[in-house]
Each structure stands twice: as C-alpha cells, then as structure tokens.
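tool=predict chain=A
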Amino acid sequence: MSAQQPHVSDLLRIHGFTALEPGPRLIVLGGVHGDETCGTAGIERTLAELDGGALQLLRGQLTLVPVANPLARRLMRREGERNLNRLFKPTPAGEAPADYEARITNLLCPLLERHDVLLDLHSFQSAGEAFAMIGPRDNAGTLEPFARAFEEGQLALHMGTPRVVEGWLEIYAAGLAQRAGGRPADEAALAFGWGTNEYMRSRGGYGVTLECGQHEDPAAPEVAHRAIHAALRLLGMVAPDPHAKPPATPSLLRLVSVTDRDDEDDQFVREWATFDPVAKGEPIGVRADGSVLAADRDGFIVFPNAQALPGAEWFYFAVESDRDLRRPALP
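tool=predict ok
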C-alpha cells in the first residue's frame, strides 16, 4: 500500500478548536485500530456538538482525530500494514517510512507533541466491562521515566470506568525477556512496545487509554462520548456540569504477567472475559501437549485472545494494586 497512490479514505482527518482563553491542550484519538469504531462515534458526536454550539470550548486547545488509522478502518480490521499502536516513534531522519503506519506515525507524533494531554479511545475483542489504562508511577528509571502520575491518575478516575489498569510497558518488557530466554530486551525491541501514550509521556505530557468495551457493545460509543466530556470538564476547558457527581473510586489492577500462545492447538478451558477472576491453582488453558496452565496466584484474566497466533500474546494476568489514584505519591 505504501508504494501506491493513497486512497482518498486513507487520508488523515484532523479537527482543531482553539478558544480565545489560554488553557490545556487536549488531543483525542479514535480508530487507532481499524475495527474499533466506538471512539470514532464518540468523537463525531462531540464534533457535531461543537459545530452546532451545544458544546462550547471556553479555554485551551482541543484536537480531535476520529480515525487515526484510515487504511485499517477502510479494511475494517485491526491493522493496515501493521499495528499503529506499536513502534509509535517518528522514522529516524534520513530513513524512508517502512510502511503506511510509519507514515501515519510521522504525522501524529508532532501533533501529540503540541499537546499536554492525550485521550486514546479503544475497544477490545473479548467480552468485558470498559476500563482505563494508565502508565507508571513517578520514577526516574530507564524504562519509562515519568513525573505526572497524579495528573494521569486523576484523568483515569474521571473516565467513569469500574476499573483502572497499570503496568503495560513493564509487562511488555518482561514478555520480551521471557521470549528471549530471560535475556533483557534491547532498546529496539522495547521500542516496538511503545504506543501513543508512551510517546506522549516521553514528550512531557500524559495520557490515558480508555478501553470502552467489547468491539460490538452498543454502549461503547456512549462510554467514549462521556469520557471526552469528562476530560474537558476535568481540565476546565468547558463549563462544569452542575449535576455531575464525584467519580466513584474504581478498583485498580496491576498487570503482572503475559502468557503467549505457543501452538494453534493451545486452548482455553472455557471462554474467558476480560477481568474474569481466577483463583490460585485454577486451570486457565491447556497446551497442545496436554499440560494444564493454571493460575499461580489469585488474580484476573485480561485481554484473553482465543484466536492469538502462535508466538503472540494469549492473555495477560493482573492482580489488585496498592496504588491510590486520589493522592499524590509521597516523595
């Protein structure tokens, strides 16, 4: 596709709104994966409200990207030529973009850099409730140094989901090491784990990925739409809602492991949904050789994928976190 003339529907559509009063700069992405349409629906509805005057931007800048991966959307599949939410870094100077997604990334990266806050709207394949994903706690480490964890946690709290999940990049790195026989992943391999939020944090901003529900869930577009409004209110970019209630405290989970599907004959013992609880010792799946894969502790299944290809992530495992999003971390 990258060597052909672009189809008109493969062009990136970006909508920008700037208030007369200065304020935060928020960018909202939908359709990073082509078969995830709820974010697009939520953004299009918000666009109509802004254009029609039902919603007024009072301060700051708002950028809305209804379909961040137009090729994948036209094909109505997760990817165009590869996963846009991996290797989300600009192509090095002097090199040609390797594929369509690299060209899109080269457009989106400078756009994200001009903003303070990112809301990235997604959905998932298995059954399950909506949830928000956040990055690391404040740290000065080498994997993902960060200093805005409290602000990011506040944004996650206001998404209105019953759960928030932390720990993505750390577990991605652990998965790479696991596949390499315990050897730490090199920088190039880790870079493939970078998505939109990781890039946003690396540029001094912060971001939340909102998983609005299962792909076909009719409630998912409403989850996306509510989240956009909640983010705008939290940042003081639109008028407050006098009837809004304080957000309920969601449960917080921490990803602790990822398990790959080794063989196409590896099978789950039942149809799992994201956040299904699992007790220590409970069977989760059966390997092709007949060995039973059981939980090594109490926890929760996350992103089970019965159609995963051999060598790809089969499911993630999470446990309850001790993090408190309502309070800044102690120095």
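The domain at 256-320 is CATH 2.40.50.100 (OB fold (Dihydrolipoamide Acetyltransferase, E2P)). The chain has a mean pLDDT of 92.
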